[in-house]
């Protein structure tokens, strides 16, 4: 096993541990992009999700990129490496000249040379992309793409877990309020898990 493969295994372990942890969803996603960038020796990495009508990609979390670059403007789903949204990884060797890069001027200012864009899929549907940015021209290998794709799947699981947790939390609050109303309708006072009946006249 070469050094890069060892980094991949280590990073996958770290990402899986983060997904299975009690950390906040934002912390988990940040761990994902940081591990991807570190494993590939890249300048930075970002996770972007499609907006509801799937016309734009929204920066959800980024690592190694300046705020100026992250907030450079709306990232069009049609103009920014659109093939990745069809479900396959796309490597761009020269980000400064390839017209699939929407913000080439900003990429030059950020010091970006190559970009790898890998779809994030949830139940077979593309919900966003993970993008890897390198400072030097990079010929991404199949192993690189496979690694980032695996991490992207773990990222989708993390996002789904966050959605389910949020839904469960809202459902719990709704049930709690329903119980409180039901108890009030019975005319009882509930204190410290003990039922106190109204005083009989």
Could you walk me through the main structural features you see in this protein, from its secondary elements to its overall organization?
By secondary structure, this protein is α+β, with helices and mostly antiparallel strands. It has one domain (3-165): Beta-Lactamase (2-Layer Sandwich). Helices cover 44% and strands 22% of the residues. It has a six-stranded antiparallel β-sheet with strand order 3-2-1-6-5-4, with helices on one face. A two-stranded antiparallel sheet has the order 7-8. The longest helix is centred in the last third of the chain and has 45 residues, at 142-186. It starts with a helix and ends in a 5-residue tail after the last strand. Residues 188-192 have low confidence and may be disordered.
């Amino acid at each position: 096993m070469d050094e890069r493969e060892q980094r991949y295994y280590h990073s996958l372990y770290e990402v899986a541990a983060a997904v299975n942890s009690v950390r906040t969803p934002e912390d988990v996603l940040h761990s994902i992009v940081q591990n991807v960038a570190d494993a590939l020796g890249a300048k930075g990495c970002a996770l972007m999700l499609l907006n509801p009508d799937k016309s734009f990609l929204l920066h959800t979390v980024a690592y190694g990129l300046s705020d100026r670059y992250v907030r450079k403007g709306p990232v069009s789903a049609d103009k920014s490496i659109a093939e990745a949204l069809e479900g396959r990884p796309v490597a761009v060797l020269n980000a400064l000249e390839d017209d699939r890069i929407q913000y080439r001027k900003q990429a030059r200012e950020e010091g970006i040379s190559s970009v790898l864009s890998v779809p994030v899929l949830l139940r077979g549907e593309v919900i966003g992309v993970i993008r890897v940015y390198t400072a030097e021209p990079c010929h991404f290998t199949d192993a690189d793409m496979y690694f980032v794709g695996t991490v992207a799947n773990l990222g989708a699981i993390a996002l789904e877990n966050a959605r389910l947790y949020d839904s469960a939390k809202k459902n719990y609050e709704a049930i709690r309020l329903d119980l409180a109303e039901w108890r009030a309708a019975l005319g009882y006072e509930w204190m410290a898990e003990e039922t106190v009946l109204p005083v009989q006249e």
